[in-house]
Design goal:
This protein is an alpha/beta fold. It is 52% helix and 15% strand.
């Protein structure tokens, strides 16, 4: 036994021998270079499925036999979650070599600009979601699942998978997977590139949303409600101002106030808030409402005013699985003007507002 152990120790490659082995195998083989750099980039998220999916988009064909060959040649091993990793003890050498095979990523702002000029709404929306949703996802849902669901429902499943392959092939993203984790990662993008892309999306969304007729319609409804409230409060205004020792203008704000609409830079939709007779509402206007947006929005009571109902509207409780705060601890309404509204709370101002935007059917959320 001791003799065998000594023999094994003698045949173990030195770091330099490992480096030469990797370089020799990679020389002239773009397929091997691709697998090595993907393994390096993905770290513990380099499952066989992840490597195969990326390889298929980047090189075409299947890489599973090649992965097994690299394992037999002691270049790659398997980790605790069955992911492919470099052989233990050679991490530094592997990173030095494999990092040299990583191509420069597409500058995100330039890529997005090309999609805008091409009018590719699906690609623009997918980039928006990739910028919004962290690769770690949200409690209960992976980032990949969230983006796949939204793009598939807004466009189609085939559109999503086509874009996924295109983004990977164009060196914009790579796909990573491990138990309980699944994501598309826009790798090596500099912060100024991310900022430019967000600014471009903000400009696009602002133009799109403020052109929606519902914005002016909602503003008119709010101003009408404020006008009614102020007329009704005229009799007690002087008394209240005296008792509270407040300026009359401040008392007027208590009876009716509207912040005006502006773009929310984080969520990329229109927001505002109003206060009428001590009832307040946060207002959100958007065309489509994603699972991520409705879960991550924290201000309430809120009414989301949308141009089409989301596909998940009848599964809202499922959408909020593992969310914090829980759905029962929030006050959320989702309204389709001249259609139907869904809400989990009651409020006099909400009821009046929904009626004023043409909604006479209100369902439980």
């Amino acid at each position: 036994m001791k003799v065998e152990m000594k023999k094994e120790m003698r045949v173990r490659m030195t770091p330099e021998e490992y480096r030469n082995q990797v370089l020799k195998l990679a020389e002239g083989s773009e397929d091997i270079k691709t697998l090595l750099r993907l393994t390096y980039q993905l770290k513990e998220y380099s499952s066989e499925e992840a490597l195969a999916r990326n390889f298929s988009a980047l090189r075409g064909g299947d890489c599973r036999m090649l992965l097994r060959a690299l394992r037999r040649k002691k270049v790659l091993g398997r980790g605790p979650f069955d992911e492919y990793i470099c052989r233990p003890g050679y991490e530094t050498v592997f990173d030095e070599v494999a990092s040299g095979f990583v191509p420069m990523p597409q500058p995100l702002s330039g890529y997005l600009d090309a999609m805008i000029k091409a009018g590719d709404k699906a690609a623009i929306k997918m980039i928006e979601l990739l910028l919004k949703v962290s690769i770690h996802g949200i409690p209960g849902y992976t980032q990949y699942w969230l983006i796949e669901k939204e793009i598939s429902e807004w466009f189609s499943s085939s559109v999503f998978h086509t874009l996924e392959q295109k983004f990977i092939a164009d060196n914009l993203c790579i796909y990573g997977q491990k138990r309980g984790h699944e994501f598309l990662w826009m790798y090596n993008q500099k912060e100024d590139e991310l900022m430019r892309a967000r600014e471009m999306l903000l400009e696009i969304r602002e133009k799109e949303l403020f052109q929606m007729p519902i914005v002016k319609r909602v503003e008119d409804v709010i101003m009408a409600l404020i006008g009614i409230s102020k007329r009704e409060s005229k009799e007690w205004k002087d008394i209240a101002a005296t008792l509270a020792e407040m300026p009359e203008g401040d008392i007027e704000k208590l009876s009716g106030y509207f912040s005006g609409f502006k773009m929310n830079e984080e969520f990329l939709f229109i927001t505002g808030d109003m206060l009428i007779d001590r009832n307040s509402l946060y207002l959100v206007i958007t065309d489509t409402l994603s699972r991520y947006d409705v879960r991550e929005w924290r201000n309430d009571p809120v009414v989301f005013i949308i141009s089409e109902l989301p596909a998940w509207i009848d599964k809202t409780r499922q959408v909020f699985n593992d969310a914090y705060p829980k759905l029962s601890d929030r006050k959320i309404a989702i309204a389709l003007p001249d259609g139907v509204a869904y809400t989990n709370y009651r409020q006099n101002l909400l009821s009046i507002f929904l009626e004023r935007i043409g909604i006479d059917e209100v369902r439980a959320l």
